[in-house]
Amino acid sequence: MAWRNLGRNRKRTGLALLAIAVGQWALLATQGLMHGYGDNIQRAITGPVVGHIQVHHPDYREERAVDLVIGDADRILERIKALPRVTDAVGRVQAPVLIAPREDAFIAMVIGVDSRSESKPFGLLSGNEDELRAGQVMIGYRLARKSGIQVGDEVALVGQAVDGSLANDLFTVQSIITGPADIVNQSGVVMGIEDAQEFLGMPDQVHEIVVRAGRLEDVEPRVATLRDEKLLAGLEILSWREIMPEMVMMIEMIDYSGLFVLVLVLIAAVAGIMNTLMMATYERMHEFGMLLALGCRPGRIVRVILVEAILLAVLGVLIGTLLGGAFTAAFQETGINMASWGGEQTGDLAYAGMRMPLDIVPRLEWIDPLIGLVSVVAVSLIAALWPAAVAGRLDPMEAMRS
Q1: Phi/psi of residue 394, each to 5°?
Q2: Is 70 exceeded by the pLDDT of residue 400?
């Protein structure tokens, strides 16, 4: 009976379904984009710059002094790589320098790396296939553009060694690179880690060790394991969540971004269903009076109206879910360039030396449609209480005369 009643005024029912469906689609589209943006932030944090876990001298992250090093680096790296569920561990050397291609000097950052390990996905040199050769360096493309450095140039580097003495040497530019980390592109003078250690007078020493776990779920157990290692006693060992707490908070806040859209969905559901059921109730006063006169209990009429509300809610959410799923699926291959929404075609944002891609691939979680379904059904039942109460209190004789 409830299903048949919905078809009496198809235009009114269709408008109510449309309002709910559009609201559910908007909710899923928003959630999909926010999940995709959260994925971008998470990949940026756990990507080339930060990794999953970092090991430092306790004061290094605060002071960034060149003499705050990790000693016995080769032995420590070998031990970390041997741990279960550790996919890789790399040491890095970083120090500010002046680079002089000709007369003028420019501020730059020496970054000493193992080029083979850093050329893997999520490494600082990801996407660059050339292996660094001794006595040669790679220059970030923005630093090269600013300083006029070209491939094959000989550049002078001047900095401070670990012991406080002057560090200076000549290096040949092997290539100009575009890396996945903004710090490399902006100011990076990338050299082999052995060259960097010799240049700065720090044999078998590094400034940081970046560790990669197999999965994000493995990170915290590996942090606990590393902190129990005697070889790493006295060193600071932090997970990516501890290193970038403000970005982690941003990711967590993204999960609540759909609440505003959900409120709009619920307003649409209440308005559409209450209007539809109230009009349908007054139009069927005579019919309800006949049913009551024939012995139908008021509770049954109330149940009919409530079932109508549930059907409207479920159908509207189902249609909206199909539309939201289609929207998400449509952009799985190409993604959505959020930068173009502002009229720009720039690719990424940069934060703390990390690149934040603005090409977002929307993603839905299984709970997203359920949030809309449960919420809309709940408010639909609430919206139906008034029409149901009106119908349940009808006097049979008066209703038949209406």
Answers
A1: -65, 140
A2: no
Q: What is the pLDDT of residues 20-53, one digit of tens each?
A: 888 888 888 888 888 888 888 888 788 888 899 9
Q: Are 177 and 138 in contact (CB under 8 A)?
A: yes
Reference 77, options 61, 98, 53; nearest CA is 53
**pLDDT, average across residues 108-129:** 88
- How far is the C-alpha of 309 from the C-alpha of 102, rounded, in Å? 78
Q: Residue 155 in contact with residue 170, Cβ under 8 Å?
A: yes
Coil, helix or strand at residue 109: strand
Between CA 55 and CA 62, with CA 60 as vertex, the angle to 5 degrees is: 120
**For residue 135, what are its two tokens?**
């006595």
Q: Give the pTM.
A: 0.75
Q: What is the pLDDT of residue 253?
A: 78
pLDDT attached to residue 13: 73
9-15: list long-range contacts, CB under 8 Å, 24+ apart: 9/279, 9/280, 9/283, 12/275, 12/276, 12/279, 12/280, 13/276, 13/312, 15/272, 15/276
Q: What pLDDT does residue 131 have?
A: 85
How many CB atoms within 10 Å of residue 297? 11
Asked if residue 56 lies in contact with residue 273, where contact means CB atoms within 8 angstroms, the answer is no
Q: pLDDT band at residue 69, thresholds of 50, 70 and 90?
A: very high
> What is d(CA 191, CA 146) in angstroms, rounded to the nearest whole number?
19
Contacts of 298 (CB under 8 A, 6+ apart): 292, 391, 392, 393, 394
